[in-house]
Amino acid sequence: MGILGLAKLIADVAPAAIKENEMKNYFGRKVAVDASMSLYQFLVAVRQEGNMLMTADGETTSHLMGFFYRTIRMVDNGIKPVYVFDGKPPTMKGGELAKRKERRDEAQKQLEQAEEAGNVEDIDKFSRRLVKVTKTHSDEAKTLLKLMGIPYVEAPCEAEAQCAALAKAGKVFGVATEDMDALTFGTPVLLRHLTFSEARKMPIKEFHLSKVLEGMELSQKEFIDMCILLGCDYCDSIRGIGPKRAIELIRSHKTIDDVVSKLDKKKYSPPEEWPYAEARNLFIEPEVADPDSIELKWVEPDEEGLVKYMCEDKGFNEDRIRNGCKKLAKARSGTTQGRLDSFFKIIPQQPNSANKRKSEEKPGAKKGTAKRGRGSFRKGR
Amino acid sequence: MFEARLVQGNLLKKVLDAIKDLLNEASWDCADSGIQLQAMDNSHVSLVSVNLRAEGFDKYRCDRNIIMGMDLTSMSKILKCAANDDIITMKAQDNPDNVTFMFESPSQEKVSDYEMKLMNLDQEHLGIPETDYACVIKMPSGEFARICRDLSQFGESIVIACTKEGVRFSAAGDIGTANIKLAQTSSVDKEDDAVIIDMQEPVTLTFACRYLNMFTKATPLSPQVSLSMSPEVPLVVEYAIGEIGQIQYFLAPKIDDQDN
């Protein structure tokens, strides 16, 4: 999942790239949500007494519950979500997927053992690890979103890559996912914890790619190479090279090719067949649909349709669904609050001006004078 | 060395009351010409700009420009310790880690010193263009505070419509609608009570009550408030700070949604 240890590395090396914010401060923002990750998240997390929520016939509904309420939470806060679903996995991901299957088989065995021993905690733990997102799950989520009037996009390949493309094209403000590889795909702003439950009171973490690169002193290309060294979904990394060493190596050698040629082969051995160049290509030119061809429309929720689908077919409580519908409809009426930064331009800070103790400016240098720019508003339409 | 002495210490107390609900922390830029503060609230909807001129202080000295990042909640706590008639002096070194507030009673019999740690704040400065506004409304500040308070019972937003007849404030919500119309004062007997409208073209804009109500915390600073509006640009709410400066609030309007 994502890039190994990238979040921690960013917090260490480029702390200025991370901002924490409350959800209500994202009003009016369009956000691309990695739906496949959310599906998984909901199936794992939305549970009652350790079991997934189910209808009378034993159909899972955890994901629908998650999609319905977490989407409403976002919409209620003025956020406009657009969900992006995974397409087919890239062939490069085969290795990673095989590993995941192995882990799942392992968990299955452990679950059986735990059941035999009657250890409730372990049963719970391992059954969560067994969660698998199926096509039915995502089709049901899509049906629900359509009824809710929330747009969704089907990515030809990886959802994170499509999210990143939407954000780069300016179609959305940022990408909501927990997977850090969205940054490797070039997402300008990554939002973590956006789809978490309200009860957890987690502030939203904002990662700015430009500040990450600035703090790490890397270009986007070098950043991609560093992420591959850290460990991505597409190929192996070099044993014994952790985050610290990875960033040092890339800083001094710029590319993996140079890193490999200069590497002390006795100490570190790169994997024998190491398709890092292909992995790099996947990050630079992922298979995505052209963002300009995608039109995002948030429409009126279909209340009767929702009640029919969620209550009659899936056994949800009708009052709650109708209440949710009201919230969706209310958020659509009325106007959106504007932001000052869309009217006034931010004056770039002089280097070190924040770091006053270090700045050795000449006495009498006027810092305050740059505060008021001249010019005029754009008037009228 | 930075030192600013204000006999009317009360003013500084009121300035803090006027900004501390909107901002948690902010940087005070001290220069030869005076002290300035500019900061946006967390959601970037409003901006506060405070300007205190050097001439307004009874004693002012600033050898080098310094930026003092302060936790405004803490600063407000300290200023609460000053009596209303105290003389307040702010002091700091050239590269300060701390700022000192000194309160002297008018009789000079009691002198208190409070030292506060400064913070290194990474704040964005916005360039605010000088603008000729289409409407400038001057009105009693108490009246404005009252209108905002009354209308916020009806809905989340207030519509301010300025025409040549006068200015209309309105709100609508679940319980019904509310309209308050103010006409221009014809005869000016008392300047502080007058409503004066200077209008080039009519403007109607919608704003969030929550922010307007926070702006009116500045009401004790000045008997008059001025509202400046132009189509599709932020509103400016301005109060004078005694004789020594002014506080301006900028508020982004609510806009119609294009995606729906």
TrEMBL record, chain A:
Its cofactor is Mg(2+). Residues 368-381 have a biased composition (Basic residues). SUPFAM superfamilies: 5' to 3' exonuclease, C-terminal subdomain (SSF47807), PIN domain-like (SSF88723). It is found in: Mitochondrion; Nucleus, Nucleolus; Nucleus, Nucleoplasm. Residues 94-115, 334-381 are annotated as: Disordered. It is an enzyme of class 3 (hydrolase). One of its GO terms (biological process) is base-excision repair. One of its GO terms (molecular function) is magnesium ion binding. Residues 1-107 form the XPG N-terminal domain. Binds 2 magnesium ions per subunit. They probably participate in the reaction catalyzed by the enzyme. May bind an additional third magnesium ion after substrate binding. InterPro entries: 5-3_exonuclease_C_sf, Flap_endonuc, HhH2, PIN-like_dom_sf, XPG-I_dom, XPG/Rad2, XPG_CS, XPG_DNA_repair_N. Residues 96-109 have a biased composition (Basic and acidic residues). It comes from the Eukaryota. Pfam families: XPG_I, XPG_N. GO terms for cellular component: mitochondrion; nucleolus; nucleoplasm. Residues 146-218 form the XPG-I domain. Keywords: DNA damage, DNA repair, DNA replication, Endonuclease, Exonuclease, Hydrolase, Magnesium, Metal-binding, Mitochondrion, Nuclease, Nucleus, Phosphoprotein. Its EC number is 3.1.-.-. Belongs to the XPG/RAD2 endonuclease family. FEN1 subfamily. Structure-specific nuclease with 5'-flap endonuclease and 5'-3' exonuclease activities involved in DNA replication and repair. During DNA replication, cleaves the 5'-overhanging flap structure that is generated by displacement synthesis when DNA polymerase encounters the 5'-end of a downstream Okazaki fragment. It enters the flap from the 5'-end and then tracks to cleave the flap base, leaving a nick for ligation. Also involved in the long patch base excision repair (LP-BER) pathway, by cleaving within the apurinic/apyrimidinic (AP) site-terminated flap. This is Flap endonuclease 1.
From TrEMBL, chain B:
Residues 1-125 form the Proliferating cell nuclear antigen PCNA N-terminal domain. It comes from the Eukaryota. PROSITE patterns: PCNA_1, PCNA_2. Residues 127-254 form the Proliferating cell nuclear antigen PCNA C-terminal domain. Keywords: DNA replication, DNA-binding, Nucleus. InterPro entries: DNA_clamp_sf, Pr_cel_nuc_antig, Pr_cel_nuc_antig_C, Pr_cel_nuc_antig_CS, Pr_cel_nuc_antig_N. Pfam families: PCNA_C, PCNA_N. It is found in: Nucleus. Its main location: nucleus. Homotrimer. Forms a complex with activator 1 heteropentamer in the presence of ATP. This protein is an auxiliary protein of DNA polymerase delta and is involved in the control of eukaryotic DNA replication by increasing the polymerase's processivity during elongation of the leading strand. This is DNA sliding clamp PCNA.
